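Dear Dr. V.,

Thank you for agreeing to look over these. As mentioned in my earlier message, I'm a first-year student in the group and I'm still getting used to reading structure tokens, so any feedback on how I've presented them would be very welcome. I ran two proteins. I've put each sequence directly above its structure. The first is here:
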Amino acid sequence: MNAETIKILIAMLCYMLIVIGIGLYFAKRAQTNSENYFLGGRSLGPWVAAMSAEASDMSGWLLMGLPGVAYWCGLADAAWTAIGLALGTYINWLIVAKRLRNYSAVAGNSITVPDFFSNRFHEKNKILLSISAIFILVFFTVYAGSCFVTCGKLFSTLFDADYHVMMIIGAVFVVIYTFIGGFLAESASDFMQAIVMILALVTILILGCINAGGVDAVIQNAKEIPGYFSINNIASPIVDADGVQQTANNLPLFGDAGSYGFLTIISTLSWGLGYFGMPQVLLRFMAIRKVDELKYSRRIATVWCVISLTAAVSIGIIGRAMLPIHAELSTASAAENIFIVMSQSLLPALLAGIVMAGILAATISSSDSYLLIAASAFSKNIYEGIVNKKAEDKKVMMVSKITLLVIALIGIVIAWDDKSVIFNIVSFAWAGFGATFGPIMLFSLFWKRTNRNGAIAGMLTGGIMVFVWNLLLKPLGGIFGIYELLPAFILSSLAIIVVSLCTKQPDKEITDEFEKVKAM
């Protein structure tokens, strides 16, 4: 390990110590009871609620996955994804946040998303609660795996170390941190991490553009690649049997531009639909201290999101001009290292370490959320809600921490393949949450006629269809090649409507509660 690498390591270790310090600061309060541990006692201010929601939502794919897609195949895929996410962020804060904050408090003081669904429909046998908790466990385990992949790629690229060892070290750090502090520590550190992330993105964006010769030079380079600088075409890197991009005369080779048609654009924009079902974001809505502060959170979150997404996509395009070929960027998976490589090229070691702490920030802010919510889904909703209804609070928290360890171990298994593409793992889990919880969240909040049978049908249809479309239909190509979130979201919505209308109306007690929240 040379002197430059040691400086980077020192900067990142200092960052880790600050994060651990935040966890220790909030540890005592977090361990008081499960409501504080899982929801922070509904005490988040507007800045923390907004910034922590976005940081936990974006994860390491914002600094690695999205720039990697832009670097590898150009503007279209990355840009339409970013536009969908920006629109989804704004609309979610605008229409869902206030209603969910009020409804979760009225519906049995719900402190988890499965709690809310179960209490919303006043169910006694907890079927809806169990289904939603199981889907959270499944998809957040996949999400945790994507975060561990980010840790592995980051540390193995920086320190030229074994990917698997680095991935495990990153996972262990995240688990220890989540153990210590719970939701409050997670939200407070996520606020700080959101600041680090946006500063890191903007810094590399500006320096990269200058180094590549300015905006005109970057655009000219992108236009010379077929389909690269287009919103209705996509670049096609020429690769060998191992997926390595071919070169000639020290330039990367591309084939003819691929089509990026209207249906593909619509399916890519559907990333925005995922927000309505993201537990890590929905929990921030439930946890904010005052409903009237949500408008400030909406503005903060939207501005942060637009700046960060624009910078991430631009970094990929700039990277292709600055580093047209590079040994560490020669495959679709390796292209996700573009932010790391640019940081090392553009900054002194110590500053590069601080900037790359942005990747670590994004990864930690997401993985602790995923682990905590998944653990709460089992301990609060399955163990306390069904298995042992008389369980003491301390026992519930102990079960939560055991569950957290198990999920982390499975996440490590998912992350074991060092050729994993972060963007692909995240897109599958995102679709899972968006289709499973998004439609039923919207219908639960805004359609009084929704009943428990419709909720169960919609949840099962959305969750199962994500697997069916991704694994069985998508490989067929053509119209089936669209992002699985869109068809699964539509089918889930149809299932809710049809089943709710064909079965018994909700009891008066449930509709009265709906009207009470509506009036608020």
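The second protein is here, in the same arrangement:
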Amino acid sequence: MSRTRRATANYSSSLLFAVVSLAFGFVATPLLLHWLGEERYGAFRVTSEWYGYLNFLELGLGGALLPLLARAIGSGEVHKVRDLLAAGMRAYARIMAAMLLAGLALTFFITWLVPVRPEYAHDLRIGCLIGLATLLWLPVSAPLRAEADARQRSYVINLLLVANSVLVTAIALFLGWRRWGITGQFIAIALGGAFFNFTLVVRGLRRYPGLLTSALRGRYDRTATSEIWRLNVPTYAMDMCGRISLLTDNIVVAAILGPAMVVPLVLTQRLPALLQGHLQGIGGASWAGLAELFARDDRPGFNRSLLELTQVVSTLGVGVLVPTFVLNRYFVSLWVGSSRYGGNLMTFFAVANAFLLAVMSLWNWVFVGTGQVRRVLKPMLIQTVLNVGLSVLLTRPLGPVGPLIGTFAGFMGIMAWFLPFELRRTFGIGLSGLLATVLKPLAVGVPYSMLLWFLVHRWPPTTWFRLGLELPIFVAAYLAFAWLFLFTTSERHRWKSRVRLLVIPSVPDKEEALAAVGGPEK
């Protein structure tokens, strides 16, 4: 399978995962709210995010493995890949032990970190202990997942995540209906994780027979270990910044305003967050291909591909997020009731943050995939401090929207202007061309949002049929306009060529490469 087809499969499978997650979450959330109550549901969500902080102990190993594996796979060094995987497994075994100890300590203090009524305390602690079971898979599954991503086989991971989502939701609903409370939700996560990890591990060990034995007995080139640890520090710091920025919102709201106030924050962001994950999937599906171009020293192809991907992310982002901003109030009201809607201001910042995160995640992937994380580390640290500080300061006076405003200020104050300049300095990407790929879709999206706002408030969608009809129409109308007026003739021709290549599997890879860049290499 060629690079373009793999990227398309990766992206399509991430889209499938987003659709399945939305559909099952749509059905499950109101039922779980009814069976668990807002306090236990909010406590479960906040506790899950506290346990997300255990990943800080991962020390950036996954991020360090990705570019090393991509480089070894791209150059056909099979033995190097095996050495890296074996070294990664031994390193993750030590990390798992540290995570388990930290998880036990977190469980001991959990009712202080997530205050609940006394009758729910035991339920919360038992659920936390069950949730720790998923860590047992880490030493084997984490390196093999990194290998699949580096080999541009993320579609395998995404399809497993689809099955995992279905399984977890089904078990969570059943145990919620049986009144198993918070414990039942963690059981669902543990069983779903067991299915996902077991399948991933069996597939990986079949591809690399004897790998587990090599890892256990230390039969591999130890230079692989030093390579991983040399790259892990900047990767770890960057990963920590990202996790803090994403995981603090609910924790800050729960600590200052109480767990119940997390509910409108989570539910109002539900649709924008799912679309954000879908948009970020473009970068996740394409970074390995970009890293391959960089490793081959194809700088023109690398720069052209990044500009095209930025244009796609920006155009799709505006196309799906503008209608979401206008219709989110009606979506939440029909879904779980208007009393759980966090307000238009919350929706605006959720949508704005989703757009910014999608674009900047793509640009960050470029530095991660080429092993140049240090170039963006310092501004990421500054952004994280600004984000968390403002989130804490703004939550009490402004309510649950405070952390979203803090996130937006962090993006706009630091990374939104730093990354374009750093891309120009590091890779020679033209600043004007890069910014145009982002600003042109926004220039059309602002007046388009005003038009939709007028139409929707004049004729509000009060039924699921109306909402389900208007949302895709609004998205399609913007994308059609963008295709005709924001894309040039040559850009439309290149994308048509790519689509034809995807549906005609007999086209040879050389011809695909020529069409992808618009002509023969010079």
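From my reading of the second output: DSSP finds 20 helices and no strands in the chain. The first helix runs from residue 3 to 52. Does that match how you would interpret it?

Kind regards,
E.
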